[in-house]
Amino acid sequence: MNIQEELTCPLCLDLLTEPLSLDCGHSFCQACITANNKEPMFALGGEHQCPVCQSRYQPYNLRPNWKLANILKKLSEVNANSHQWQGGNVCEHRGENRLIFCKEDGKAICKLCVLSLEHQGHQTFPIEEVVKECQEKLQEALKKLTDEEQEAEKLEANISEERATWKHRMHTERQKILKGFDEMRGALDREERKELQKLEEDEVNVLDNLAAAKDQVAQQRQYMSELISDLQHQIRESTLDTLQDVINVIRRSESWTWKKPKIVSTKLKSAFQAPDLSRILQEFKELTEVQSYWVDFMLNPVNALSGVVVSEDHRQVTAGNSFMFRNVYPCNFSAFDVLGCQNFSSGKYYWEVDVSRKTAWILGVYSDLNRSDLNRKRSSGFVFNPHVNYQTVYSRFRPDNGYWVVGLQNVSEYNAFEDSSTSDPKVLTLSMAVPPCRVGVFLDYEAGTVSFFNVTNHRSLIYKFSKCRFSQAAYPYFNPWNCPTPMTLCQPNS
């Protein structure tokens, strides 16, 4: 659309007068669109339609277009000057119409003035050509300024948007900083409560022991006081008639043995030492960094004979009722195996698992070291390597078999499973200051490491497998064991 079309009212086909614009971008004379709005619009529920594009609008949507009004004002001034130039102004010297323009003098003259000595040798042009050229230049200048004005308007809008985006980003970063320091303060608060609880337990134990010792001493003192009193009485007042009483008192004194109570040491088991802030901050920073690699995937039972139930959203797994107390050969609970539907052959990946209220579970990473094993698992429901003697339920959970896992057994026994020289893995007991309700797993494929974090206990490191050999793709591994409580794959950044 050219400038002439933009400045023309679609209704009266004349230059716009007091232009009003709609949200659709079309503009009309105020009188034209007002008259158009007076037509009945019962079918539209009081709404009106744009005469050009038929989009609906309410009368209050009309707004003055000051930009077009300013352009029209400038154009009217240009036209007025043009009419003035072409209005046949009479030469004040010779009475002829001034139809010629003298370039040197920059003014309109008549044809007789051209022949005068005053304008001899000057460049002259027909006034119509000069007016036309001026109008074209004015139009060019107007278009240039209009385009620049529009560009400036867009730039202003972009700057406002960038400013709003920047403010939102700063707000988000500010919240992250506040949250991070709150979590670090929370970690220190938990350390403080733990130390105070240990001190309180020591205090109660020692005070109870001392109180019991005091009672024991007091009882023995009372008995000794009574015995001393009897001995003194017999020394002062004994006679032949009371000889038997004397003998009894002597026997009592000879059989008496002073028993000193056993008093526990009042020395502190360990003097308080301020927590290692660098360690806590390093652990906090490490988990914060690994959480940036949080990957979203779904759970997938490995075989058709699976003993687990996976939820409809494929994020929660529960041991099936039919397998809950069943003796599954070869006693390795492989019927409970669940893998992530996504496998990894490079890069870094992190995920979290909710294990709250579970009394048993195993999770970590499984790498398909032998393709035939996985095929047997899919067909039979078990992973069984004939070269490995599965003697216990833990036998297969070792890195040599492609498992880098940690687990919970018997409510409170946390273990990691490493390789050993025997067919059974080396079961390492893990100490947990706070039982984890949520466990984070971080896989660094290139570095060959699998790390486990106690998200519940201010992101402390549970265990880390190093020098892992992933000869094939690695899968997230889940095993709810025979505990009926579900384990849940957490949403990223939840």
Automatic annotation (TrEMBL):
Domain B30.2/SPRY: 277-494
Gene Ontology molecular function: zinc ion binding
Cytoplasm as UniProt keyword: yes
Name listed for the protein in its UniProt record: Tripartite motif containing 22
Coiled coil location: 131-165
Any Pfam family: zf-B_box
Cleaved signal peptide residues: none
Organism: Rhinolophus ferrumequinum
Cellular component GO terms, alphabetical: cytoplasm
Subcellular compartments: Cytoplasm
Keywords: Coiled coil, Cytoplasm, Metal-binding, Zinc, Zinc-finger
Domain RING-type: 9-54
Gene name in the database record: TRIM22
Tagged with keyword Secreted: no
Stored SUPFAM superfamilies: B-box zinc-binding domain, Concanavalin A-like lectins/glucanases, RING/U-box
Domain B box-type residues, every copy: 86-127
